[in-house]
Each structure stands twice: as structure tokens, then as C-alpha cells.
Amino acid sequence: MNQTNLLSEAHLSWIGHEDAPIEIEVSRRDIIKYSMATEQKLQKYLDGDEAPLMFIFNLFAQPVPMDQLRVDGLAKGNQKGPSLPLKRVMAGGKEVEMFRPIKPGDKLIGVNRIKNIYEKSGKQGPLIFTEREFEVKDQTGLPVFTETETSIAR
Amino acid sequence: MNIGDLSLGDVLPEREHCPSNVSLFLYNAAVWNPHRIHYDETYTKDQEGHPEIVIDGPLQGDWLAQCVANWVGDFGEIKRFSYSNRRATYLGETLCSGGEIIAIDEGNKTIRVELWVKNSEGEVTTPGEAEVLLFQ
To answer: Is B61 within 8 Å of A57 when comparing Cβ atoms?
Structure first.
């Protein structure tokens, strides 16, 4: 059972929240650039006929103007979520379920939702886990992949 | 590749990875990642306290996915994949990706492989796991 000493009803009410859908189109050139940069071996990736699995990383990131970047270079947060009482956030695990490969010309629609927020006691104090699920479908509504990512605040 | 020919404990081919400034720049450009710890040495050391430029965690996730994809080739496809970056790695390090079969389900023609990126000390920096559907 989740402990909620630090999490209020207001925090927990974010569970299930969905951001606005994001649409992108996959280009062969972007697949080729990624494949070259990651030193892929398979010709289908180097030719851009199919995207390597981890091509999905940051695929839906929205380019923002320079004045919206922080001093560390990252974009100022535009992902919606509760303001947690613990502020040092680190990445936890990432899990991907693939329903079909991504190909050039694919028009994909992604929806980010907060799947769960819960608290645990760690060796060095309380930890708050936020699980976000990113569900991606094609234009016909068929699933392409689902990515689940956990961030940990301490 | 036939599922009947595979056994628990079979290992996937290992591969060495020696990222350079250029390869990290190209990777971060390709994924549109402007985080300075991956290209700005002065900032990375002085402001964030790292000893060197940081090798991207998702890039190591890619190496794990490649480890499986290169091994299985056209005989199957990855259905599930997970990884977790547990230890920071830095420019100048030589890392090694690899894996091992940990489960075989002949009925569903699926196998599970445990994956890892290790540093030169043999420490796992990025563990992972994949489920692969074989076509035969």
C-alpha cells in the first residue's frame, strides 16, 4: 500500500491527468541521422527504412526558442504535473512496449499521462515516484508503442 | 535462428563502445538534446561537478537495443524493452554491451534476455531486459 505522508489529495488528484496530444511525422532523413550517430549495424536502419527502437527517445520533444532554455541547456519544464514537496528529481527506469516498427512517413500521435504518484521510504529518506505513460498511436488509431517512465524525487 | 536451437544462458555478442566528443555531439543533435553536460566540458565540471563530459543514458539504452537487434536480425523483433541508468559514465571510458538468454517460451516463440552495459571495471552501468518474438 502506498504511503502518503508527503502527498496530499491535491498531489494525488494528478493521477490520470493527460497532456494535450502531440503529433509528429517521421522522416527517413531523421532515421538515417540517428542511425549514423548511434553506429547502427543493420542496413535497414542505416538506409532509414525502419527506425531503431531507441529512436523514440525525445522523438516528441517540442523544439523551443533559445530564450526558453535553462542555464543547463534543457528546456524550461512544460510537462504538466504537481509541484512535489521533494525537489531533487532523477530518472528511474524506462520500459517500452513496441507494437510495430516505426517507418519513414509515419504520422504518430502521442499522449502523455500521469499513471501513478506514490511515496516510499528510502535509506536516505522519503522518495516520491511519478510514473508517466506515453501512449503513441498511428493515424488510424492503432498502437505503435507505449513508454512508461518513472522519475524519483528525493 | 530457430527457438529450438536456443538455450538458457546463451550469450549475445558483446560490443565495445568508445564514445568520442564527435559521436556524442552527433547523438545529441540527432535526438535534439541541448543538455550541456554532454558537450560543454567547463560547465560540466565547474557547475555540475562531474569529472568529465557525461555519456548519455539513453545512448546506452540504444546500445542494449542494438545488442538484441543485431543478434536477432530478421529472425524476430523486440516486443518489450526496458533499461535503467544506474551509474554515470564519462567521455574517455570504454564500455561494453552484452546480454544473455534468461527465459525461453517455445509455445509463444518468445525469449527474454538480460542485458547490460559494463564499464572497464566490470560494473554494470545500465542493466536492461528485452522480450523478443521469434518468427520461427
So the answer is: yes
Which residues are within 8 A (CB) of A105 and not within 5 positions of it... i.e. 6 or more apart? A25, A26, A27, A28
Interface predicted TM-score (ipTM): 0.96
Give the span between the Cα atoms of B50 and A95, in whole angstroms: 27
pTM score: 0.91
How many interface pairs between A and B have CB atoms less than 8 angstroms apart? 90
Q: Does the pLDDT value for residue B78 go beyond 90?
A: yes
Work out the percent of chain A whose per-residue pLDDT is above 90: 73
Q: What SS3 state is found at A108?
A: strand
Quickly count: other Cβ atoms within 10 Å of residue B37's Cβ: 22
The distance of A141 to chain B (nearest Cα, Å) reads: 19
Q: Cβ B23–A39 below 8 Å, yes or no?
A: yes
For chain A, say whether B57 makes contact (Cβ under 8 Å). yes
- Euclidean distance between CA atoms A87 and A90, whole angstroms: 10
